[in-house]
Every structure is written in structure tokens, then in C-alpha cells.
Amino acid sequence: MGFFAGLRLALRLARRELRGGVRGFGVFLTCLALGVATVTAVGVFSAAVDDGLTRDARRLLGGDVQFTRTHVQPGADVIDLVSARGRVSHFARMRTMVRPATGDVPVLSSLKAVDRAYPLYGEMVLESGRSLHQALAGQDGLPGAVAERELLLRLNLRPGDVVGVGQVRFVITDVIRKEPDRVTQFFGLGPRLMISLDALQETGLIRPGGLIRFGANVRLNNGAGPDAAESLMEELRERFPDRGLRLRTYRSSGGGLTWLLDSLETNLTLVGLAALLVGGIGVAGAVRSFLAGRESSVAVMKSLGASRRLVNTIYLLQTMGLALAGSLAGAVVGTLVAVLGAGPLAARIGVPLGYGLYWEPVFLALVYGILIALIFAVWPLSAVGRIRPAQLFRGYADPGSRRPGLWAVLVCLGAAGMLLGLLLLTSPSPRLPLGFAAGSVISIGLFWVYAWVIRLLAARMPRVGPPHLRQAIAGLHRPGASTGSVLFSLGLGLTVLVVVLLADGNIQDLIRRQTPATSPSFFFIDVPKGRMAELEQVALAMPGVERVDKTPTIRGRILEINGIPAYEAEVGKGSSWALRSDRALTFAGPRPEKVELVTGDWWPEDYAGPPLICFDSDIAKDFGVGVGDTLTVNILGRRVTGTIAATRDIDYTTGGINHAIIFSPVVLERAPYTWLVSAYAEREAEPLLFREITSQFPEVIAISMREVLEEIAGIVADIGLAVRSCAAVTLLAGLLVLAEALRANLRTRHRDAVIFKVLGATRRDVMLALVLEFAILGAAAALLAAALGTVGGWLFVTEGMDGRWVFLPGTLAAVVLGGVAATVTLGVLGVRKSLAGSAWPVLRNE
């Protein structure tokens, strides 16, 4: 028989067998649908956000090209160059304190000053409906300002009231409803206040060393495309390499938000795949159970001349057809979930959404589902072709070897390789997919060995103790025992849950306990040189203030690494942020007490030679540099090249003052730097400290660390809810597989129960023995899951996040007890009906 003729015959026979329904495949279909739905929902939402960012890229950036510079203006020569290419809109951004005219406590605000050309793309929408520049014109002789509603609520003000910004009083003329180029409101220090650039000049906020970013957006002539934008950016970079410009085109308008969403998508996809992996255990069990009921049919087909390949093909087609159906159902459900939940979630994190049919993530999720089904179904399917026709004559011959053939092993390895390849292609970093693959293989191997050890120990334990316990232990190793299925299904689901819960618990502990315990109460920014001593004296004189730390600070941008332009250097993704914009720098003579060196030596206290640098050791590792290498930094338009003399370890989780780059003092001590101050105070003293500093030093920006941590905690809670929801799907898949594994044993349970009753056992005796067996199984699975999950959580926190690990025994205890309770509950519910059945049908067949 030719290949295609054989395939047609296999299809016809597979279709005929499926006419009898898919009974027994409920868990198979549900597990695949759950996992595929999770992956689909994550993928579709991410695709919608990517589409929204792409469609609105020019509006979100504010132009085709944007350039910014910290502290000082970009320069007239830069403006002349870009003005010849298109329309230009100038802006300035900074944080400042906004003071109500009533003298109440000021509020930190994100200030933005714009010119009359703003916006180049999109539309600025105010609540009154009038234009922005009408609102900024002011009234009653005062310049105008528009503000976000949140700022007015914090100040207890409304349109028409007056506020102070620097040395100028502004009247709030309107409320911002939509700011076109505000990419995200996911995280920000202070709500927006917008004024005109002309008014900014009068405020006195523009001063040497002040943390202000000047910039311009460019709308290219004649609707020029991405090539023209990239060309202009390259020309600016080549003609002004020492100017310290941060250059962006509309293709990179998402900035760090894109990286964050990509990372979140990868993590959630991996959790969804974990649900598929757990569901794969259910796939294998369902296939094995289905084939056990088809042994006679297979024997008949083989006695009529069917080949092993034909039999294998028939049942492989059936299984893959059902896998496709389950995956399609999951894709539909996942798409609906993404469509219904995308709007509220996008509004929460402040990102635009595209609206379309996103087939790529749906197709990818379907492929994941099919590959997982193939990996777990081929193994038991390969044994069906080994059934012998002689099995029709009971007791005449054994059914033959059921070990998988070579082709099954090769197919499993090929499907696993394809799955890993897809993960690597779609992930922003190879570490997560490789870690997931390694963790999956190790976990499956450990659970397999664990199940074998438990069966071996149960078989060799001495037959002593109460009869109920002896019977429970015997149930762990008898033929057909569900030990392996229970350990795999419940254990893998609980492992994923433990990893997620411990990682989330450590993050919450870091934000809510560790960092607040070590972080300052306030950061005071832009403290002028001449007023530093006065501010320190005022702060320390207040009751409840424990200490004040201070360091000189100035902004600079890394231009070159060992003479190679920063934009051409190959650096690790974990530290690429250090090159994206200006960084805070400082200088020091004597070595500060908190500086812990990893390599190199600190310079002498009286050092006055060429610039030396103490650099963050983690960033240095990602940059591929060390002691003796050089960094070139633009500081206020001046190129400063320093040699790395030492690297140091920085713990950013303390929340204190930390600078990635510390220069030797000669370079910066005469520059127009400002002071960065951190104040540590008792909680009751914080309101008075804030009021005194902001009233006596109006030019100083005060940032409350408590408010910052609360906002971060809210963001982490939102992300944690999404991850925990996906982990719950994994656990649900595990419980479904667990229930099916226990249900598959009901016939044997009923026969055993009848025999025990005939021998004098009561229903209570039988139920007690079963409860003990289920409790032992649940505890065994939960304990190994707790151990593996703890290791996984520790690796994620310490290696993935570079955080400090905190052991959470309460979380582990809850998971272990929950695993035991789930196993006992599902087991008892499954056998209760079986125990209530009549004994006569069983006895008649014996």
C-alpha cells in the first residue's frame, strides 16, 4: 500500500472511531484549552499594545525625531540644522514644587514648558475645549498654566486658583484631559503641570547644575519616512558627538515601556507554557487510558492485516485532531479574554491599544499546544502498534513490550527542540527560555525518580502498624497505583505556584519592609552649593530627624567605552539603561564609608592627577570593562575621559544615595554641581520636616520615598495579580489531571472495597485507608514541590533580580497543606460513589 493510500485509510478509520464520541478526553481537551488560552490572551494583548505604540509612534514621541540635553540648551547650530529639515517644537522638562497661593504644603510636580508650535503630532485636549495656547496666555495679568486633575486634587485647588512655581505666580486656567506625547502614566514622580517656555525663563528654575532637560521635536518636511528620521539622527550624532544629545526617532517612542512589556509578556507566556506542561501529563494519561480500552480493537485490526505503522497512524491522527480542537477552543477563549480585558488594563498602565486581528500570537499559541500534545502523546501512542493479535485469546500470550520505539523518542525530541526554538525566537532574552527548559526537564526527571523511590520504599517497608496505614502504604506500590500520576500532576502545578508566590512575596517584602527600613524619608534635590550647610543645619535641628546624608551631584552622559562610541558598543541588556540617557555622577576625595570595593584600589585623598573612576561592578561586567579601561562622559558639554581605578558593589534596594560613577575630585569640584541630600527621620517627624524644608528652601525639590514606594507597590501588585492568575491556571490544570488520575483508578478501588467488605471491613475502615493513602501522596507531592519551588524562587530573586532572598515559611506551609487537602478531597469525592456501589456485580464476575 502506498503512502497516500495508507494515509487515506488511516484518516477514514480514525474518523469512524471518533464517531463514538470523545469520552475520556475531557481533561485532555480542558488542559490544552487552559494553557493555550493563557498564552493567547498574553500574546494578543501584547500585540495590541505593540500595534498601538507603532500606529501612534509619532504622536507618542512628539515628532519624527527628538533630541534632548540635560542642564543646558542643545545649541543654536543644532537647531539650525534640524530647522532646515522640518518644523521644530522646543520644550523643557523638570520636576519642581508647586505651591498654592494660600500657603499650604507644596506638591511635587512634573513640569513641562512648551512653545507655540507644540504639539507637532496629535492634539492637546483640555476640559474646557479651548486651545492650549489660549489657556497658557493667562488671565488677570498672570501667566497661565494647565494641570492634571490629580495635581489639583492634591493641592485642593480648581481652575482659576493661583499657584507659585519658582519665582512666578501662575493662574490655573484649565485641566489636562489628554496630553498627546505622554507615552505612559505607568510610573511617574508627580502629576503634570504645563506652562509656556517664555514663562519658564522668568521662574528662576533655570540655573547652573539644575536638573532640567531641554529638547526639541522635529516634524520632517513632506511626511518623510523612517529612513529620513534615522538619517537625521545619524547626522546629528556624527556632527555633534560631544554635545551629549539623547537622540530618538519615532520607531523607539515606547522607550523603556516596550522593554518592560516585552519582559512581562515573556514571563507570562512561560507561566502559560507551564500550564500546558502540566496539562501534558493529563494528555499522556488520557491517551494511555483511551488506548487501554482499544486493545481488543487494535488486536482485531492487526489480525486482519493492519500494519504497526497503520495502527500508530490511526491513533496519532485521532489524538492530534483532538489536540487541535482543544487548542482552537483555547485560542478562542484567550482571544475573548484579551479583547474584553485589554481596555481596562491598557488604561491602567497608560498605553495605547491597536484594534485588529492579531493572528501571529494566536497561531503561536496553537503551535505551542500542538507541540506539547505531541510531546506527551507520542510516548504512549508508540506502544499501541506493539499489541499482538494473540491477545484476543485471553491468557494465550502476553501483550508484548510497551516501551516506546525509536521513532517516538525522535519525535518527542524534535517537538521539544521546536518548542525551545520558538521560545528563543520570540523572547527578548535567551536566559528565560533556557532556564524554563532546564527547569522543566530537571523537574520532570526529579518527579520521575521521586515516584520510583516512593514506590520502592513503600514496597520494602515492614508490614507493621495499624491496618489502615499498612493498606495505605500498600496502595502506593500495587499494580496500577496512581502514585506517579498524582506526583507529576499535583507536584508540577504546585512547583509553579510556589515559584510565583515566593518571588512575589520577596518583591513585596523588599518594597514594603526591606527598602522602607533602610531608605531615607526624603530626597532633597537641586540643593544649591551656597545653601547646603544651612539646609543641613535646619534639618538636623528638627526633632525626630536622625541623620542627613549629602553628596555633590551632576548629570553626565556616557559617550564612549574604551574609545568606542556608546551607541556602537556591545553591552549586556541588563545595563543598557546606563547608555540611554544622562546619569547622575558624583566625586569624592576620601573613600566614603559605604563604598565596598570589588576590584582595584581607591585613589589617595590628595590625588590631583588625571581623572579616575570608581564604577558599578555589575554595569562594568555588562560593559565588558574593568580596572584600567576608560569611560568618556559628557558633562555640561565637556568631554571627560576617566580611567577605571576600582569597581564597587552597589545595593540599590537600600534606597539610599548611590551613584554608578564616582570621579576623583579635581574634575568636578569646580563644576556647577548641586547637592543631593537624603534625610532620615521618624515617621511622625516627616510632615514637619517636609514643610520646613520646602518653605525655607523653595528652590529645592523634595521627594517622599514613602510615596514613591507606595506607587511602586501598586505597580508590582498589578503585575503580580497577572502572574498569579496565570499560575492559578497552571494549578487548575494540575488539579484536573490529579482528579482524572484518581478517577482512572475507580474500578480497581471498587473491587478492592468489595473484597475488604466481604472480609469484614466497614465502609469507615476502607475510607480511612484511602484517606491516609491520598494524604501521603499529597504530602509527598507538596513537599517536593515546595523544595523545587523554593530553589526556583531563590534563583529568580537572587540571579534574575539581584535581590536579597527572604525565606517565607508561611507561604510554603500553606502550599503543602493545600496540596494535601486537594489530594484528599478529590480522592474522597472520586471513591465515595464507588464505595456506595453494590458488591454483587463484582462478585458475579469473579
TrEMBL record:
<dbReference type="InterPro" id="IPR038766">
    <property type="entry name" value="Membrane_comp_ABC_pdt"/>
</dbReference>
<protein>
    <submittedName>
        <fullName>Uncharacterized protein</fullName>
    </submittedName>
</protein>
<feature type="transmembrane region" description="Helical">
    <location>
        <begin position="405"/>
        <end position="425"/>
    </location>
</feature>
<feature type="domain" description="ABC3 transporter permease C-terminal">
    <location>
        <begin position="271"/>
        <end position="387"/>
    </location>
</feature>
<feature type="transmembrane region" description="Helical">
    <location>
        <begin position="479"/>
        <end position="503"/>
    </location>
</feature>
<feature type="transmembrane region" description="Helical">
    <location>
        <begin position="767"/>
        <end position="795"/>
    </location>
</feature>
<feature type="transmembrane region" description="Helical">
    <location>
        <begin position="437"/>
        <end position="458"/>
    </location>
</feature>
<dbReference type="GO" id="GO:0005886">
    <property type="term" value="C:plasma membrane"/>
</dbReference>
<keyword id="KW-1003">Cell membrane</keyword>
<feature type="transmembrane region" description="Helical">
    <location>
        <begin position="727"/>
        <end position="746"/>
    </location>
</feature>
<feature type="transmembrane region" description="Helical">
    <location>
        <begin position="270"/>
        <end position="293"/>
    </location>
</feature>
<dbReference type="Pfam" id="PF02687">
    <property type="entry name" value="FtsX"/>
</dbReference>
<dbReference type="InterPro" id="IPR025857">
    <property type="entry name" value="MacB_PCD"/>
</dbReference>
<keyword id="KW-1133">Transmembrane helix</keyword>
<feature type="transmembrane region" description="Helical">
    <location>
        <begin position="314"/>
        <end position="342"/>
    </location>
</feature>
<dbReference type="InterPro" id="IPR003838">
    <property type="entry name" value="ABC3_permease_C"/>
</dbReference>
<feature type="domain" description="ABC3 transporter permease C-terminal">
    <location>
        <begin position="727"/>
        <end position="835"/>
    </location>
</feature>
<feature type="transmembrane region" description="Helical">
    <location>
        <begin position="21"/>
        <end position="49"/>
    </location>
</feature>
<feature type="transmembrane region" description="Helical">
    <location>
        <begin position="807"/>
        <end position="831"/>
    </location>
</feature>
<dbReference type="Pfam" id="PF12704">
    <property type="entry name" value="MacB_PCD"/>
</dbReference>
<keyword id="KW-0472">Membrane</keyword>
<feature type="transmembrane region" description="Helical">
    <location>
        <begin position="362"/>
        <end position="384"/>
    </location>
</feature>
<keyword id="KW-0812">Transmembrane</keyword>
<feature type="domain" description="MacB-like periplasmic core">
    <location>
        <begin position="30"/>
        <end position="235"/>
    </location>
</feature>
